[in-house]
Write a structure and sequence with these properties.
It is a single chain. By secondary structure, the protein is an alpha+beta fold. The strands form 5 sheets. Strands 7-8-9-11-10-16 form a 6-stranded antiparallel β-sheet. Strands 1-2-3-4 form a 4-stranded antiparallel β-sheet. The chain has a two-stranded antiparallel ribbon with strand order 5-6. It is about 30% helix and about 15% strand. The protein is built from 17 helices and 16 strands. The protein has 3 domains: about 5-65, no CATH class; about 115-215 and about 445-503, Phosphorylase Kinase, domain 1; about 220-445, Transferase(Phosphotransferase), domain 1 (Orthogonal Bundle). InterPro entries: AGC-kinase_C (IPR000961), Kinase-like_dom_sf (IPR011009), Pkinase_C (IPR017892), Prot_kinase_dom (IPR000719), Protein_kinase_ATP_BS (IPR017441), Ser/Thr_kinase_AS (IPR008271), STKc_AGC (IPR045270).
């Protein structure tokens, strides 16, 4: 190779990825090759004949002879700087002091277990949105751990447009809304179950309440049903068993869930189901001196609350009900997973109730197995007394009548039903199954921060969208006497041993 100037060399060099392409007249031209790749970064640069040759495009850059397939996963992603990129620069003395303060606070937090604040978490992307506010994926700036932060607007709780239409005084309506607001924080702080989401922190500021929950990366069951349509009976039976374990655990603690639907069922990284969103749940009152937000006993519930398509008929009719309403909702969810829609649909709860009252029994397709038909028929009874009392017959057999009457309630053991023949109940109830095995639907997760199994309707949403509407000055719109101390006791920090078990 002849000696030439650096400017001439650079003018003849083009870059293709990590290699340099040099038009060198000293190399013999190969008829089968357009250009050779020369590694200029090695100690002894030499031309290396590639196994896959590149053709030169019209603009002088090398292009592959066969186009590369574009991944659909990253097709709609916006170009942004990766969150883990760190840039090193020379900092003045005051910046070093800030860094030292940051390090001292990090160490003090891990040691003293301080209460958290909004500034401790970095927002990454939106996971969901509802009337209450948003659920946002956040990263702990001290530990880099990921959480799902549920934000509740104080204005939505303290100000209600329906108060003028209701006969009850405003103070009574406010107390009901506060009770539902405190329900999720109080219930989750007292529970620990493999199929129930974990609460780690809660706090509030002038405008919002914050619940820092366990991030479940597999997304909503609703998302997977939308992708797959319907599920096989064995898959449905497995997830029905996990939901049943969670409901049975809640009922044993005196809690009625009241909002079972595909949107509130998440799949973790191993494909196991986890219940979330306890905002409509109700806890029984055993000690009335414990808190003013406990409410009425579990056996005398009257609120018309929940998602109508999955609600028990007694709730829609405004009658008194108990925890047995959750087993009717389980039947609706199992029906949805098998058929692709709940058994009854309508524009409002009155239309749905009318359809339920009109039909003697829900229409169960003939193509389902006899065992699944029997299972659904026992749960989807509109009369409470004729519905399968799962809490009573969870793992025991009831009395067997020689002559079975039509419409009689099922009294056989729930765990021994034919649809659960492949379920290891001992391992599932102890949590060993969830730790050691994978579920039937294994979510595809390449990066937890991408939230790939959540709807793009939310994950592509701007983090600051609706910020102007959220910034409502509560103190200007609410009576200070009414607002005083109504959110007292909402803040919460999980114990150190609890955090260590899950991180």
């Amino acid at each position: 190779m002849s000696v030439f100037k650096l400017d001439e060399e650079l003018s003849r060099l083009t870059v293709n990825g990590s290699c340099a392409i040099v038009d060198d007249e000293d190399f013999e031209e190969d008829p089968t090759c357009g250009e050779w790749h020369k590694n200029l970064l090695s100690a002894h640069p030499q031309a290396i004949s590639p196994t896959v040759y590149l053709s030169t495009s019209t603009n002088g850059t090398a292009a592959p002879s066969k186009p590369r397939r574009r991944s659909s996963l990253y097709d709609k992603m916006a170009v942004s700087t990766p969150p883990n990129i760190k840039r090193l620069e020379l900092a003045p003395e005051e910046d070093f002091q800030k860094a030292n303060q940051y390090e001292r606070r990090r160490r003090s937090f891990s040691k003293n277990h301080e209460p958290r604040s909004l500034e401790d978490f970095e927002p990454i992307r939106v996971l969901g949105q509802g009337a209450y506010g948003k659920v946002i994926l956040v990263k702990d700036q001290y530990t880099s751990k990921l959480y799902a932060m549920k934000q509740l607007k104080k204005a939505e709780i303290l100000i209600s447009e329906e108060e003028t239409k209701e006969k009850e005084p405003a103070s009574v309506n406010l107390e009901k809304r506060l009770e539902r607001t405190f329900a999720e924080r109080k219930i989750l702080s007292q529970l620990e179950h493999p199929n129930i989401v974990k609460l780690f922190y809660s706090f509030h500021d002038h405008m919002k309440l914050y619940l820092v929950l366990q991030f479940i990366p597999g997304g909503e069951l609703f998302y997977h049903l939308k992708e797959q349509g319907t599920l096989a009976e064995d898959v449905v039976a497995f997830y029905a068993a996990e939901i049943s374990c969670a409901l049975r655990f809640l009922h044993g603690k005196g809690i009625v869930y009241r909002d079972l639907k595909p949107e509130n069922c998440l799949l973790n990284e191993k494909g196991h189901l986890v219940l979330t969103d306890f905002g409509l749940s109700k806890k029984s009152v055993e000690d009335t001196t414990e808190s003013s937000h406990d409410g009425e006993p579990i056996t005398t519930l009257h609120s018309i609350i929940g998602t109508p398509e999955y609600c028990a008929p007694e709730i829609l009719a405004g009658k008194s009900y108990n925890q047995n309403c959750d087993w009717y909702s389980l039947g609706c969810l199992v029906y949805d997973m098998l058929i692709g829609k709940p058994p009854y649909t309508g524009v409002n709860h009155k239309v749905i109730l009318g359809k339920i009252l009109k039909d003697k029994t829900p229409k169960i397709p003939m193509y389902l197995s006899d065992g699944m038909k029997d299972f659904l028929g026992a749960l989807l009874r509109k009369e409470v007394l004729k519905r399968w009392d799962v809490d009573k017959f969870w793992n025991v057999e009831g009395p067997k009548n020689k002559k079975k009457k039509a419409g009689q309630a099922k009294t056989s053991c729930f765990q021994s039903h034919f649809v659960f023949r492949k379920v290891d109940w001992n391992k599932m109830e102890s949590g060993e199954l969830q730790k050691t095995t994978n579920g039937p639907i294994l979510p595809i997760i390449t990066d937890w921060e991408l939230a790939e199994n959540f709807d793009t309707e939310f994950t592509e949403m701007r983090l600051d969208s609706g910020a102007c509407q959220d910034q409502i000055n509560i103190q200007q719109n609410i009576n200070p006497i009414l607002h005083r101390d109504v959110f007292k006791g909402f803040s919460y920090v999980a114990s150190s041993s609890y955090l260590e078990r899950y991180f």
